[in-house]
Amino acid sequence: MDCIQIVGLSGAFGLGMCFAVLGSIAVKMMPRMGIDQSKFGTMISAFMFACLIAQLVVGVMMDSLGYQLVAIVGFAAAAVAILMLANAKSFSAGVIACILLGVGAMACNTTGNVLGTQVVQKMFHGDGAAAAANNLVNVFFGLGLFLTPFVVSFLFQKVSYEKAVSALGGIILLPLIAVFLAVYPPTPAGFKLMDAVMLLKEPVTILAAFVLFCYIALESSFCNWLAPFGKEVLMKQNPGMAADKADASAARLLSAFAIAMMAGRLITSFSGITQFGGWLIAGAAVVAAVIILIMTGVKSSSAAYGLALAAGLVFAPAFPTTVGVTFTKFGGGSGSLFGIIFAIGLAGAVIVPKAIGNMAKGASVQKALKLLLPACVILAVLALSLHYVKGPADAKPAAAVVAPAK
After folding, report:
1. Distance, CA of 27 to chain centre
2. What global pTM score does this model have?
3. For residues 327 and 52, what is the distance between their CA atoms, to the nearest angstrom?
4. Domain covering 3-180+192-398 assigned CATH 1.20.1250.20 in the classification
5. What pLDDT does residue 406 have?
6. Where are the domains of the chain?
7. CA 246 → CA 104, 223, 229, 250, 251, distances in Å?
8. CA distances from 237 to 121, 159, 307, 309 (A)
């Protein structure tokens, strides 16, 4: 594997780590900082809001300054932020770390989903190449999402909180070696900021953005609240369970979700899914609604693990397929296009996980999950709309479309 491929895939892996870290350490971080579910929800919102702002800047920065600088910022900022979380003992210090984590996450995100999709797509030909390639890239997002709680749940039983979380910072810093050795493809020639602004006039841009608004609200809620949800179910089933054992077991619930997500994305990475991408996402949203409804009343920890696996499998293709379908409708992707749709999408993650935290404060995380049901319904409707809307590439005469190189 070339260094450039390592950089692209590591970007998706790093994003998975960034999205999993708060949920993975929540059960130990909250008592350490003396905060409740509502304040933890505020930390998630701070992280997601920082992601929203950073994504707009990073997308344009990639198109204007190149891939390498964005990759450096991603891995370095994420590592520093995680080390800050390892040592933070107050709510304010945690919020500052979350803001920096958002910057690192979005630089990793753009590296993975733009550069990664570009270099991996060479492995594919014909219809559905962008969607299939992005699904394969996002298998590595799932790997980061899986390994983070897995590593933490193991280390929490062996070393101190500070050392366990700091180890994550060291892991996410490793791809910098490949970043400095890689040879990068050229960035768009003659890029102007107005080029990015003009993307907003395309209906497909707006539809894709709101599809991601609903989907990211769902995924970020699962990433950050699965472990607390799992602990609630475990402690109700086994009131005498030791706290450390419950914390580790609850963290592994997120690993189960991530494993299923990796499997689902791997399955859809070798198929021409662009042709029916909208229907796939809409169907997944309906099934997700059923899973969430069952989760609000589940009483068995084994059933909770099964539901986490089912949710990961169902959620798997939604994000990369949306990105791939959107790129295809534009005849290719760019940092600016990805930045716009992902930034608007992140607003869902700013609002919904915080709402779950607010409701959980007076009830429970398990009951608060019902707030995700409207997002599933709206996602299904928007995904079908995205499927049928025409993009700039669809409007071109057939003779003007250049066939991919064999």
Report:
1. 21
2. 0.74
3. 20
4. yes
5. 32
6. 3-180+192-398
7. 30, 18, 11, 6, 9
8. 47, 28, 16, 20
